[in-house]
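Minutes, project check-in
Item: structure for the 402-residue chain
Input as provided by the requester:
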Amino acid sequence: MPLSVYILALSVFALGTSEFMLSGLLPPIADDMGVTIPQAGLLISAFAIGMVVGAPLLAVATLRLPRRTTLVALIAVFGLGQVAGALAPGYAVLFASRVVSAFACAGFWAVGAAVAIAMVPVTSRARALAVMIGGLSIANVLGVPAGAFLGEGLGWRSAFWAVGAASAVALVGIVTLVPRIPPPDERPRLGGEVLIYRDRQVWLSIGTIALAAAGVFCAFSYLAPLLTDVARLDDGWVPTVLALFGVGALIGTTIGGRFADAHLFGVLIVGMAADTVVLVAFALLGRYAVAAVLLSFLLGVACFCTAPALNARMFNVASAAPTLAAATTTAAFNLGNTAGPWLGGAVIDAGLGYTATAWAGAVLTSAAIGLAVVSLRLHRRTPGSRVVRSAGAAKNPVRSQA
């Protein structure tokens, strides 16, 4: 695996830390900004929605730009967004900085994933993407707890400064170690790239990603109250269990990256089935403290095991438009990350309790399995490789393989 792929993972570590660290910083931010906890929570929603909107927009806007130059610009804007957040005099500026950071983050994910697969053979795509996603897993293990620690000891703004510093290190790494990716013989055109959306397999992949992510985050978003109110664990256990989830995520990403290239659909279906089983077990056994802690770890393993396969599948069915495919994948994940917590909140507001979020999540992951099975059957009806054309691939068709 090229060293430059690990530099991209370092960048993703900074991106992921910024995206998720606010879950441990909401009370001090609310106090400092003079807003309520729910209003501070909108900063998290703003980032997720910014990712959904920003991924395709940035992919289109940068379609004809050199990819390494685009990565440099996006990580620089992201770092400046962290500085703006650290210096924000009020809530409105902080909110705006989160939206700008989310746009840059979304664009970086899209272009970075396309760069990662461009630097490795087609048989190593899932593994390269697993390395990138590993940066997100490490962010959950180290970055998010470190942000909470800094926020408690030095104030919430120090966490933003720290992510800004990590972004600067990533910027230097990209400039010095990520190679220039040669442009295609014919420059890609938006009209040709969007042709991927005429393919049923692309929409099945979008639906599978969104449902799988929504199912997990429907329950995971409310893990803290489930641990404290249902399992009766002390509040001090919450950071430990969240870190344990991150360790499971890192293990799951490694497993998925190792096997997804050779057994893509197997990893997809088995991984989402494991998600469903763990969520059902959470609903049934979540009131037992030991079970709740163990299941939190297993949920991290199961849900991140499928991530490399979900990413690789989209690139395979939309290989003629890799940048737009990466943007679509990013948007689909964040659509699920937005819809899942909303559904979980609706379930709780309906008076069904915190464990009901796990039941709702299991329904969503079951639906994701159904879409993956449909995709597999369609794939089997078309033996061998299927040609996917775009304007940029008209002369040199790219063959899409499972």
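Outcome recorded: The longest strand covers residues 386-388.
No further action items on this chain.
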